[in-house]
Design goal:
The complex is a heterodimer. By secondary structure, chain A is of the alpha/beta class. Helices cover about 55% and strands about 10% of the residues of chain A. Chain A has helices spanning about 30-40, 50-60, 75-85, 100-110, 125-135, 145-160, 165-175, 180-195, 195-210, 215-230; strands at about 20-25, 45-50, 65-70, 90-95, 115-120. In chain A, α6 (about 145-160) packs antiparallel against α7 (about 165-175) and α7 packs antiparallel against α8 (about 180-195). By secondary structure, chain B is of the alpha+beta class. In chain B, about 60% of the residues lie in helices and about 15% in strands. Chain B contains 14 helices and 14 strands. Chain B has helices spanning about 5-70, 75-100, 105-135, 145-240, 255-290, 310-315, 325-330, 335-345, 395-430, 440-470, 480-500, 520-535, 570, 595-605, and strands spanning about 295-300, 305-310, 355-360, 365-375, 385-395, 480, 505, 515, 540-550, 555-560, 610-615, 615-625, 635-640, 645. In chain B, β13 and β14 form a beta hairpin. The chains are: A alpha/beta, B alpha+beta.
């Protein structure tokens, strides 16, 4: 999800000099362009062309972040995440997806991804997402946090699968700025992952009300609707 | 045998008439016979009486004449008188003897008459002799007779002849009396006989009358009985008992009628059998249709008793021999079945429920069912008498739909990935970090960027359309301020319109302030329509959009009108179909815009129309529901093509 830079980042020290990023995608040209987008932003980038290779590289080298396509032959993004979590509970990961299937995305969030990038994306979309994810790593819980910081904190807790804290932060973000659809959508996601489906749907509806074009909320509600049609 | 009823009737009457005739004739003959016998006897006896009477008179005359001669004067006149009397007496005697002689049985009588005759003849002879002597002496003068002689003669007459006369007279009188007595007796007998005959004729008449009555009754029965039988059997046939046979007992008209009746009854029976066969055949046909149908069918009555179930339904729910049982019992635990029974019996089935696809586990295999209830009315009983529960296996459709959806996802993914790579490459190429490009290089990069964006639009449109068309599309309609909406809508187009030298204006009905629509989707509609208009309107043209009051109550009408090249009539009907592009020039859109527009309008519960004239222009117009009123914060529910969606009001 691409977001506007918020005031929250000003107080957080930027320590991204030569952060190491692993890009895993079976598509050569995606790999190439993503790599170069990040190289241009002064990151150290390595690539892998499949899940197995990605896992090997991730184990051997110390990476701050892994970017991976969800859809890959043999070992896909979810499988990679699952295996990574077996030895690294806190590694930050961003998933790349083309056709957003909510169940896959929810599964990914359940495994602690920090964010996702949706095709088609631009070099700036990649850089912004990466920047935000790396920035929130050093964040601490704070009562003085503003709406944007609370939201980032919620995302951080989500990535660490600390659901109660994540929900708490999301609620704080909404309390401070009730008009941010992203905050509502995030709360919806968190509530869904804690299996409070009714409240989750309600949160996504709030997001839609604020931004009718809110893609994640649309996709979620559409997915819920088609699921409920079967029951 | 009597050939015809007519003959029978004629014969019957003839017989009666004949009987009457016999009776009459017999009476006449008997009576006339009686009369004849009596009259003859009577006449005969009367003749004898008359003859006896005239004999008596003649005898009296003879005595008188004789006395006169003896005691008055003997003269010619006396002689003549005596002679006449003698002759009369003789003649009477003669007649009497004749009459008696013709009566052979009257021997006694004859003897008596003979005695009288003998005496009378003797007397007449004596008298003749007496007076003949004196006559010869002096033919005409009795005075010539001496007084003594006369006196002697007188004495002789008185002593001798008078007793004879008296005896004769007595004999005649006795006989006469006897005959009168006879006559009286004959008359009495005649009367008595007549009485007897009257009684006999009367009795006989009564017998004949009774015979006639009996015969008539019998005869009537002979005619009427078969008719009564026929009537009864006809009544039974009309009551539906067709196997009626009348045994023809006679060979007359009724007999023939009976034969015809039998033939008719047989024909009727055959016809009925044929009909029954036909009905059974038709029943068998419809039964086999029902049985072989691919849908599961269960017919239940209004109390829930299963009247009929077809093979498919039995397979679906793995039930057998359920006819006559309550469907709630039969369906217990089978959710898809049970809930439909309940819905039917409670009357809680709604039209939208038809679109609900239900997962059903059948022999460890998941199938998808759609269901419907058809209430069955009867012409006689008011209300619903039965329900037809329909289960349609839509697994294949469902899987196809899933495949289609998966396919769209896959295509979308497969297209987006290369598009992403292109876009990334172009963007990176344009980034200053890689060094400056020559202007012509820059133009080519721009061309690649534009076309990749167009491709992406097509992919997105395809995705949208795929979702819209499967009805998996939610309209999130809110109360929308029309004026505000148009103001924001036109901004991005102003520059394009200016460049194309096309006037873009809004012509809105002041009465239409708020409508119920999804602003995002409505924007998509207008963007598509305005883009189209711009594409086909040349410089100096005019594009007008706005609202107006439509014909439909509760709906506003929106329009987009241009003075462009127009749509050929044969193409007009296809404009809302996918990939319908008139020309393939560079300005062409994705070919999906109008299809998307129509899907969105229909999802809002509206309709879209088009009219166009080549060279003059085109107008698209559509209807959207007006905001009639809501409870302010609650949900408004509007109908869409995918059932009902909940609608939130914008804050």
């Amino acid at each position: 999800m691409v977001e506007e830079p918020t005031a929250a980042f000003k107080s957080v020290p930027i320590t991204n000099s030569k952060r190491r990023i692993l890009v895993v995608d079976d598509e050569k040209n995606i790999r190439l362009t993503v790599q170069h987008s990040l190289l241009a932003a002064d990151y150290e980038v390595e690539t892998a062309s499949n899940g197995m290779e990605g896992l090997q590289k991730f184990r051997s080298g110390k990476f701050d972040l892994i970017l991976m396509d969800l859809r890959m032959p043999q070992v896909n993004g979810i499988e990679m995440l699952r295996q990574i979590r077996e030895f690294d509970q806190h590694a930050s990961a961003i998933v790349i997806t083309a056709y957003l299937t909510i169940d896959t995305l929810l599964e990914a969030f359940g495994l602690g991804v920090s964010d996702y990038i949706r095709k088609p994306f631009s070099p700036n979309d990649v850089r912004e997402t990466v920047k935000h994810v790396l920035m929130r790593e050093g964040m601490e819980d704070s009562t003085e946090a503003d709406a944007g910081q609370s939201l980032e904190l919620a995302r951080k807790h989500l990535a660490d699968r600390e659901m109660p804290q994540a929900i708490e932060s999301a609620r704080q973000a909404i309390a401070k700025d009730p008009n941010n659809p992203d905050a509502h959508a995030l709360l919806g996601m968190l509530l869904h992952l804690t299996e409070d489906f009714t409240a989750a749907e309600q949160a996504f509806r709030e997001a839609i009300l604020l931004d009718p074009q809110h893609q994640l909320s649309r996709d979620y509600l559409f997915w819920m609707q088609s699921r409920s049609r079967l029951q | 045998m009597f050939k015809s009823l007519q003959t029978k009737i004629l014969l019957g009457f003839t017989l009666v008439i004949l009987l009457m005739g016999v009776l009459g004739s017999w009476a006449v003959i008997t009576l006339s016979n009686i009369g004849k016998t009596n009259r003859e006897t009577f006449q005969h006896k009367l003749d004898i009486v008359q003859e006896l009477s005239s004999l008596d008179t003649a005898i009296e005359e003879l005595r008188s004449a004789s006395t006169h001669m003896l005691f008055s004067s003997v003269d010619q006149r006396g002689y003549a008188r005596l002679d006449d009397a003698a002759k009369t007496a003789a003649s009477s005697l003669e007649d009497l003897s004749q009459s008696v002689r013709s009566q052979p049985d009257q021997v006694e009588l004859y003897r008596k008459v003979y005695s009288i005759q003998h005496t009378a003849t003797f007397l007449i002879a004596e008298l003749r002799a007496q007076f003949a002597a004196s006559r010869s002496a002096d033919s005409l003068s009795p005075a010539r007779l001496s007084p003594d002689d006369l006196r002697v003669s007188q004495e002789i007459f008185t002593s001798e002849y008078d007793p004879i006369f008296d005896s004769l007279k007595a004999k005649v009188t006795v006989l006469e009396r006897a005959y009168i007595k006879d006559l009286t007796q004959i008359a009495a007998t005649g009367i008595e006989r007549a009485d007897t005959i009257r009684t006999e004729v009367f009795s006989f008449g009564i017998v004949v009358l009774l015979l006639c009555i009996a015969f008539s009754i019998r005869f009537a029965n002979i005619i009427v009985n078969p008719i009564t039988e026929l009537t009864e059997k006809t009544r039974r046939i009309s009551a539906g008992e067709l196997n009626q046979i009348v045994i023809p007992r006679t060979n007359d008209e009724i007999g023939r009628l009976s034969e015809q009746f039998n033939a008719m009854a047989e024909k009727l029976g055959e016809f009925e059998e044929l009909n029954l066969k036909k009905i059974l055949e038709e029943k068998a046909i419809s039964e086999s249709i029902v049985q072989s149908m691919d849908d599961g069918l269960v017919l239940i009555d209004r109390f829930g008793i299963v009247l009929s179930i077809n093979r498919r339904a039995q397979e679906f729910f793995a039930v057998t021999n359920v006819e006559g049982k309550n469907c709630l019992d039969v369906a217990r635990g089978i959710q898809a079945f049970e809930s439909l029974c309940v819905a039917a019996l409670r009357g809680s089935w709604r039209e939208k429920d038809r679109d609900v696809t239900l997962e059903h586990v059948l022999a460890r295999e998941v199938i998808y069912l759609r269901r419907d209830i058809i209430p069955i009315q009867s012409g006689e009983t008011p209300g619903t008498v039965a329900f037809l529960l329909i289960f349609r296996d839509v697994t294949q459709q469902f899987e196809l739909e899933k495949m289609r959806s998966d396919f769209v996802g896959m295509v979308s993914h497969e297209l987006r990935t290369p598009l992403t790579a292109i876009r990334m490459s172009v963007d990176l190429l344009a980034e200053p970090s890689l060094g400056a490009m020559t202007p012509i290089q820059g133009q080519f990069v721009q061309a690649i960027r534009e076309e990749s964006e167009r491709l992406l639009r097509i992919v997105n449109d395809l995705m949208d359309l795929a979702r819209l068309e499967t009805g998996k599309f939610e309209v999130r309609a809110v109360a929308l301020d029309v004026q505000n909406f148009f103001n924001h809508l036109l901004l991005p187009f102003q520059a394009t319109a200016r460049d194309a030298e096309v006037t873009l204006e809004v012509e809105s009905d002041a009465g239409i302030k708020q409508i119920l629509a999804d602003p995002d989707r409505l924007k998509q509609v207008f963007v598509n329509l305005i883009s189209n208009a711009l594409r086909y309107t040349s410089a100096g043209g005019r594009i007008t959009l706005g609202t107006r009051k439509g014909d439909l109550q509760g709906f506003a009408e929106f329009f987009v009108r241009d003075t462009g090249s127009g749509i050929p009539p044969d193409f007009l009907s296809k404009v809302f179909k996918r990939f319908s592009i008139i020309s393939t020039d560079v300005k062409s859109g994705t070919g999906l815009g109008l299809a998307i527009v129509r899907e969105i309008i229909q999802a809002h519960g509206g309709s879209i129309f088009v009219k166009s004239e080549v060279g003059v222009g085109t107008e698209f117009w559509f209807t959207l529901p007006l905001l009639a009123g809501s409870n302010g914060t609650g949900e408004i529910v509007i109908g869409t093509n995918s059932g009902k969606v909940s609608v939130n009001r914008a804050p």
